[in-house]
Amino acid sequence: QVQPVESGGGSVQAGGSLRLSCAASGGSSSAYSMGWFRQAPGKEREFVGVISRFSTTRNIADSVKGRFTISRDNAKNTVYLQMNSLKPEDTAVYYCAARPGPMSIRPADFPSWGQGTSVTVSS
Predict the structure, then answer these.
(1) What is residue 1's predicted lDDT score, i.e. its pLDDT?
(2) What is the pLDDT of residues 31-63, one digit of tens each?
(3) CB within 8 Å of 120: residues ≥ 6 apart
(4) Which residue, of 15, 98, 105, 113, is most buried by count of CB atoms within 10 Å of its CB?
């Protein structure tokens, strides 16, 4: 199983941008669909985006569609989440997860998780 490791979180003002990275160690990330999820304080973990093994299919949550983009570079075993036009409600810990084979938007379908990276958006 690959082990995802997130980076790139931080604090930004509303309207700003951040790019999160997820490095998958311990295997070839091309064998895995990769997803991004987030969890705000006091809320359940929610789906943000997912990308198939060879980037042929991507799915982005309606709440971030048009602002967030998911991409991957299998040569670097890395998945990215580009976040633009950030809003205070995007404040959360963002998690990267890996799932062998086909995509899913359900957190329970992903067996491998990173430790998370915190994103804070101030108004």
Answers:
(1) 82
(2) 899 999 999 999 999 999 999 999 999 999 999
(3) 10, 11, 12, 91
(4) 98
Q: 30 pLDDT exceeds 90?
A: no
Residues 19-23 have a mean pLDDT of 97
Q: What is the DSSP string of 20-37?
A: EEEEEESS-GGGEEEEEE
According to DSSP, residue 90 is labeled G
3-state secondary structure of 103: coil
The Cα–Cα gap between 113 and 111 comes to 7
Strands of the sheet containing 18-25, edge to edge, are 3-7, 18-25, 78-83, 68-73
**Which pair of structure tokens corresponds to residue 56?**
């042929």
Taking CA atoms, 26 is separated from 2, 8, 100, in Å, by 5, 21, 13
